[in-house]
Amino acid sequence: MKPNKHKATHSAEKEFGGALGATCIPVFLPLTVLYLLSVCRSPAASVLQWPPHLPPAAQLWDPLAAVLVVGWITLQSFLYLLPIGKVRYVLYMYMFIFVDMIVTRILHLYFLGFHALSITAVLLIVCLWLGMPLGYLFELILPLAVCAIGVSYLLSMYLYIRSFWAPQHALSLGGNTGNPLYDFFMGRELNPRIGDFDLKYFCELRPGLIGWVVINLGMLMKEVELRGSPSLAMQLVNGFQLLYVTDALWNEEAVLTTMDIVHDGFGFMLAFGDLAWVPFTYGLQAMFLVVHPQSLSTLGAAGIILLNGIGYYIFRKSNSQKNQFRRDPTHKSVAHLETIATATGKCLLVSGWWGFVRHPNYLGDLLMALAWSLPCGMSHILPYFYVIYFTILLIHREARDEKHCRAKYGLAWDTYCRRVPYRILPYIY
Ligand SMILES: NC(=O)C1=CN([C@@H]2O[C@H](COP(=O)(O)OP(=O)(O)OC[C@H]3O[C@@H](n4cnc5c(N)ncnc54)[C@H](OP(=O)(O)O)[C@@H]3O)[C@@H](O)[C@H]2O)C=CC1
Ligand SMILES: CC(C)=CCC[C@@H](C)[C@H]1CC=C2C3=C(CC[C@@]21C)[C@@]1(C)CC[C@H](O)C(C)(C)[C@@H]1CC3
């Protein structure tokens, strides 16, 4: 079959530093993952050390890692395809870029992220019971990351090539500029699917997110091997991040309204972000604790648990309030909230959580990020990598979302911004 001839959207404004950013980021970020993992396991754990702590090439490859990564993705794909869980009929919107027209298609998806996590947990318990040395993940972490990066490159190439056979209306607005490197990075096709298998939705929530908590558990088991029992700091990091991942999978339908699913194409940025960046950098704290044990006072631990609790409360309540409002604005939990009407027919909340700041969910997420790093003490900057990166990501994301909302809601958005002047942190930002 011949590839389709697509019209490029040259007018779409380029993001992430344009073609230069799209050329450098796919080289720079994978190297950053390997560098961070390698520094994290070194006794000094100093990101500022010169010459930098680089892993010897021999430590980067192990065939066992390739088997584990491929086996893991296969297992999660199998769990994704199991016809159990809540079935939802999802309205997918395809925008015709040149004609001002929106086409909708109804797809059915099974929501069973939580089932996938639970079945994986049972399988892990069985493996541990059979004596599988999960702590070996610590030794294998660099080859595992190399394989995950390799898979994300292969997947992005497949996505780029197959997008030329996709119809024009299935392409994303931002990833179809005609510049191959930029389009490869941003992703041309919006929601690529093989039959009923939605590749972007699967990658966003399953292998990387569940892989992250399995790696954390591996670090905990390594600590048990080395010191006889897991430290309080390790238990807190594992517990907090498991709560975050469980929450994401329990509320997995909510991901369908995020800009990654609705707006961004599926290209290298998301494939690498989902499959390599999340599992191998979000859990750096647990890896750090294996080599740099910390003693935590009961009072300190209580303070950190409280911070994580407050962050989680703000994150969950604000996300649920918006999701409920978008699903059914007449529902009794949101019907009393003040709103602004927009020309699209949709309303914007101006009271409740969304009248406090324009992104209360980001605020909660950032408080949690801080709580995940504090158990690692104050002696090193490395365990704070996630908070620093995440602050930058969310500030950039907020700016991108603001641009989309201004384009979508026009004057109503400006009124909302006047009513709710702070973006993430009241009186500061
Ligand atoms: N851990 C991680 O790495 C990451 C986590 N996240 C988390 O994911 C979650 C989702 O984030 P994200 O997708 O960025 O954005 P949001 O969930 O904040 O969604 C933004 C959208 O919400 C709608 N909206 C904005 N303001 C209002 C309002 N006042 N009333 C009603 N609707 C409004 C708009 O869409 P519309 O009007 O079309 O409904 C807007 O585009 C967040 O909790 C975030 O912290 C995000 C990125 C990375
Ligand atoms: C540096 C780089 C390559 C960045 C790519 C960004 C991705 C890592 C993130 C973009 C949006 C994400 C979301 C989550 C994880 C990180 C990525 C993929 C998320 C699945 C985490 C759990 C949350 O509860 C969530 C479901 C709301 C969230 C959705 C967005």
Proportion in helices? 55-70%
What structural class is derived from the secondary structure elements?
mainly alpha
**Beta-strand content estimate:** 5-15%
Largest sheet: number of strands, sense, barrel closure: 2 strands, antiparallel
For this structure, the quaternary state is single chain
- Total DSSP E strands: 6
Poorly predicted regions are 91-106
**Bound chemical compounds:** NADPH dihydro-nicotinamide-adenine-dinucleotide phosphate, the ligand CC(C)=CCC[C@@H](C)[C@H]1CC=C2C3=C(CC[C@@]21C)[C@@]1(C)CC[C@H](O)C(C)(C)[C@@H]1CC3
CA distance, first residue to last residue:
52 Å
Summarize this structure as a short list of keywords or feature phrases.
transmembrane helix; 57% helix; steroid metabolism; binds the ligand CC(C)=CCC[C@@H](C)[C@H]1CC=C2C3=C(CC[C@@]21C)[C@@]1(C)CC[C@H](O)C(C)(C)[C@@H]1CC3; mainly alpha; 2 domains; two-stranded antiparallel sheet; binds NADPH dihydro-nicotinamide-adenine-dinucleotide phosphate; Delta(14)-sterol reductase TM7SF2
